[in-house]
Amino acid sequence: MKKMAVSLLILTLILSIYTDLTKGTLPVNRHVQEEPVEEMKESTPDRPFYKATIMPGQTLLSIIEQKHGKVPVPINKMIEDFQVLNPGVTPEKLQIGKEYLFPSYAGGDS
Known about the structure:
The protein is built from three helices and two strands, in the order H-E-H-H-E. By secondary structure, the chain is mainly alpha-helical. The model has no long low-confidence stretch (mean pLDDT 79).
């Protein structure tokens, strides 16, 4: 009797693992609705900018300081300008090897 109970338990366990690996246990929405993509405007931002590729260890501040030396605007303004040029990207989430637009403060404007 014990052998049969253990065998049923092992069979149930194997069947459970097989089902979990093949079909999964969470329901999956197979009909994904596609959201309409808004057309991106190829407009040039009002503020002057330049492109730069992120290297290991670089931050928004280090890249702008490397290009301009001391920056004549507050860091909050720099972050705002960066986010306007790169919608949906925060300076904390910069990825190595990706190219981003950075605000140019060459004229010393704020």
